[in-house]
Amino acid sequence: MSWIATPAIRPFGSVRIFARLAAVSLAAALTSACVGSMPGVGSLGAAPTPAPAPEAPAIEAGKLRVGLILPLTGGGNAAVAANSLKNAADMAVAEFSNSNVALLVKDDRGAPDGARDAAQQALAEGAEVIVGPLFAPSVQAAGQVARQAGKPVIAFSTDAGAASRGVYLLSFMPESEVDRIIEFAASKGKRSIAAMIPNTAYGTVVTAAFQEAAARRGVRVPALDRYNPDRASIEAAAKRIAALGDQADALFVPDGGDGMGLVGAALAANGVTGARMQLLGTGLWDDPRVFAAKGLQGGWFAAPDKAGFNNFAARYRARFGSDPTRIATLAYDAVFLVNALNAKYGAQAFSEATLTNPDGIIGTDGLFRFRQDGVSQRGLAVLQVGAGSASVISPAPRSFTPGA
């Protein structure tokens, strides 16, 4: 079913792109180069042997040229993710009514030098905006080139360090998930929240976000325990958390997949249950392995609402005959946004004031906006783990709080 007839954008002061929205599971990280949750890519298997790049078609005069930079011949699963992102970008062009976008597809090979070359090529061919790259070092390299040319970048890394003025990250940022779940827990009377966090790059990012979110809301942190991703370290950390007694009324554990299976079992074995401490997590919990794990039922976590991704995935399968990667919606929303802003605002479409409008935009995965520092914020739902599934207990907001 097609849901796009015309670009549904309201005048600024209240910019919105209305899609039938949302998200599916946030799984394991793609690579430490992204420094955060890179959902749904790691389990795809080996990348296919890259095919020779097709000859670029001639571009119709008057089209808005958009550079699309992806690791099309990157190693591991990077090429799989890149192909899905490219398909989603093509789909956004096809589904936008009277699209005026021409994509200039460039391969960065999953490396900063490749991203720098790709950005230079795209800009030399007339690109007004860059979409991508995927990995943080490549984003930084392409961003340097684009800034010198006065052109914005809408990239997909989850490493906030890759963002800067003019380089915007349209990603599933761990910081947004942490802030949402701590805000929700505090609103439900949880005033003393301990944390048990994996010793990973993702864990380091989430630790800082947790401490900031807790301080902002006056939440006490009686313990912050880091553990290595092995059974012995997890069991030792669970014992230390259990020893807190009634000092904590909630426990934040931002792990996913198999890791949460070990964590849940270790906590249960030490008497740490939802009745004693409310368990809290991030979008990494949106995973069937977490839903099936012992001791995690009743836990709360923050993630995008599911409906939008499910709708997107059905259209993607109909068009391409395969399932999209979880992050494919990022390319779809970026290209759809570029098309819509160009249609409405012309020469001012990609100014900083337009791109960082505080009212935000509703895309496939729900509400988001870009801050002036380039980091995105998302309006997320809070879900509760049940037996083999999760259900929404606090819907994603449809607008940002003024001044927040």
From TrEMBL:
Domain of life: Bacteria
GO biological process entries: amino acid transport
Record's keyword terms, sorted: Amino-acid transport, Signal, Transport
Entry-linked SUPFAM superfamilies: Periplasmic binding protein-like I
Domain Leucine-binding protein: 64-387
CDD domains, A to Z: PBP1_YraM_LppC_lipoprotein-like
Signal sequence segment: 1-28
The family this protein is said to belong to: Belongs to the leucine-binding protein family.
Protein name: Penicillin-binding protein activator
